[in-house]
Fold this sequence. Notes:
Elements: H1 2-46, H2 52-91, H3 105-118, H4 122-132, H5 138-155, H6 160-168, H7 170-174, H8 180-199, H9 203-221, H10 224-236, H11 254-272, H12 279-304, E1 342-344, E2 350-352, H13 353-359, E3 365-367, E4 374-376, E5 381-382
Antiparallel strand pairs: 1-2, 1-5, 3-4
Amino acid sequence: xxxxxxxxxTCFTEGVSKKQKHSVKRQIEIIDELIASFTATKASxxxxxxxVDEALHRLQAETKKGQDExxxxxxxxxxxxxxxxxxxxxxxxxxxxxxxxxxxxxTLDTVVAHHLFQQGDLDIYNAFLEESGQAxxxxxxxxxxxxxxxxxxxxxxxTGPALTWCTEHQKTLTQLPHSENLTSVIxxxxxxxxxxxxxxxxxxNAVAYxxxxxxPLCTQSKSVVYRSEIGSLSSxxxxxxRMETSPYRHLLTDDLWSTACTSFRxxxxxxxxxxxxxxxxxxxxxxxLLLPTLMKYLSIRHKFGTASGAELQxxxxxxxxxxxxxxxxxxxxxxxTSNNPPMLLPCYHVISxxxxxxxxxxxxxxxxxxxxxxxxxxxxxxxxx
Length: 385
């Protein structure tokens, strides 16, 4: 299976992707050359260096040449795409002879739409909603729109919106499990802004920034890692305006910005209680792991029938793909039902609704059975498994 995937990836990266990049680059060059030719012709006609008929004949020939080259580039791309399709068809057997899926088309459309939105393909997302006749989920889009704005700024090497977002949601973020991730993200963002100031030669502003934002953060966290980092950052002050030629030039790579984007997205999704990966993405990844086992099992069953005694041994998916479809209340030791669903407390502990009602006092307040947190019953949220 790994060899097949490697062959498909090679076919895509070395064939389709490379050919498409070359095609786009060359077609832009063709357009620029035609624009330059038209501009030069306009000046030539004003100076009467050639007649109108001569100019039109020359422009027509150049335009035809550019059109022919552009058409050939498109054909080359189509050929590579067709070749990739042949490789996929030759190596991946369809499951349709063995399985039929009778699913809810509306649910499937919603899953696809959410995936497109989470990937940031907003134009395709809007077109898909229109074609499938769906209405946009305002709560879902609002949650991710906030994250997208910050990520877009980070891609443009601007940490301001992301830092502002972290400040506004700090109270929520500090209540999350593994809240130390928030400190790490904020430190990464401050570090990148500090390095940007040094790269621009703003040494005085960089000194003020490290004193105001980075040093207090390191003091609060009491982490040896941050103290080591602040030592390196302080040394960078000696290379203000010359960071590209300094021993610390590795701190200017785009990898640090990519890491910050990934870390910020994880923290932001956790704070807004939305999944970091779309449901479609999770299904595809899990399906990729399951497919070899499933194909082997189905081929045996199709050949020998159900009497063969073949059993489907599920592969080890790891913790990333472990989800619980049922919940057993740790207080009353009963499995949750539709009438007694699991309830999420503000402290992120979960108990059943029956347990919540038994713990609730007359003033509609209750104390979490696992931590000292007290809350109003109306602040608890129902979990849907």
